[in-house]
Input
Amino acid sequence: QVRLQESGPGLVKPSQTLSLTCSVSGTSVTSDYWSWIRQPPGKGLEWMGDINISGSTYYSPSLKSRTSISRDTSKNQFTLQLSSVTPEDTAVYYCARPSSDYWGQGTQVTVSS
Output
């Protein structure tokens, strides 16, 4: 069974870099493409970016300048880094495999001093 689990700090200070890891079990991170998606409070889901089978990345145009997605095949993980965060980046962050509609449970990240 495929499982995804997000991990990372729940509180980040403004201007710092948010870093999250998605640990994948039941399949390889090289077997498909994987996404980061977030949901700010009271708002809808926002796609942030993907990393595909070959390791190529694609980002939302609105976040591209601040976002980096990478993977560690030895740990079967992929990561999200979002730089220069502001309180508007407060959200529940999800990792997912959209092709099969597998999602992690989500992790709350709050940006506050």
User: Anything to note?
Assistant: The longest strand covers residues 18-25. Residues 37 and 47 are 4 Å apart (CA to CA). The chain has no helices and eleven strands.
